[in-house]
Write a structure and sequence with these properties.
Elements lengths: L4 H6 L3 E7 L1 H10 L9 H7 L21 H4 L12 E10 L7 E14 L3 E12 L2 E13 L23 E6 L4 H5 L12 H6 L9 H16 L7 E8 L8 E9 L2 E8 L5 E11 L1
Antiparallel strand pairs: 1-3, 2-5, 2-7, 3-4, 4-5, 6-8, 7-10, 8-9, 9-10
Protein name: MaoC/PaaZ C-terminal domain-containing protein
InterPro entries: HotDog_dom_sf, MaoC-like_dom, MFE-2_N
Family: Belongs to the enoyl-CoA hydratase/isomerase family.
Length: about 280
Amino acid sequence: MPIDAAKAVAAEPRTGEIAWTSKDVQLYHLGVGAGIPATDPDELRYTLESRLHVLPSFATVAGSGSPGVISGLSMPGVEVDLAKVLHGGQSLTLHRPIPVQGTATATGRIAAVYDKGKAAVLVMRTEVADADGPLWTNDAQIFVRGEGGWGGDRGPSGRLEPPAGEPDRVVERSVREDQALLYRLSGDWNPLHADPEFAKVAGFERPILHGLCTYGITLKAVVDTLLGGDVTRVRSYVTRFAGVVYPGETLRIRMWRQEGAVRVAVSAVERDDAPVLADTIVEHA
């Protein structure tokens, strides 16, 4: 069997040093649609170094050489075909605000392996800390098609009951034609997001937007709309990737206020509100 769950979970974590600067933060913010309008004071907090704050989802790309999804797929006990791999979900826990520049240690491991029958799910955890202590914890849920069925633990269900009632806020965000080309400069060089021929081989009519780019666009919308533009209020952020986005489309982001949290659903306007992000929660102070 390509995945040995016990061996994968027991493997020694991989540790690496990461570093980032204000330029990396600014590039990431541009990659998730910041800077429109360019002179808007609220947008300058994402683009101008003298006013800069850090959108917490930057944690998914910080250092870009940190132990991540691809390196995790080569951990002991894991031998899989990348063509069968799907990024199923992402969760982020902030231990304190992310500094505009810094160096840190990233430790990556496979925290769990679940048997979903027709697929295996790897939970790939990256914990990041600097000299002052823990900064954030990232969990990526990776589906590997065709690798389930060995009788292992099915794991928890990430499906939530739909939010009740009409959303408190609905905003739309346009995705630029070159959004994926810009976002990939933050470190995700998968040709699926840039090369039309590769995208066709993978079963898509054209290159698709990175799921983590949609993840960042959505968090920015929540922060700017319901959290008063204060990135330091975000405590955690979890989502399930429910569908793809093509550059040039429009995202419809629905938000429901809850006690200490915002429930979110994201869809693609031009494809009859096809689901994009589901089971999405931003917990906040």
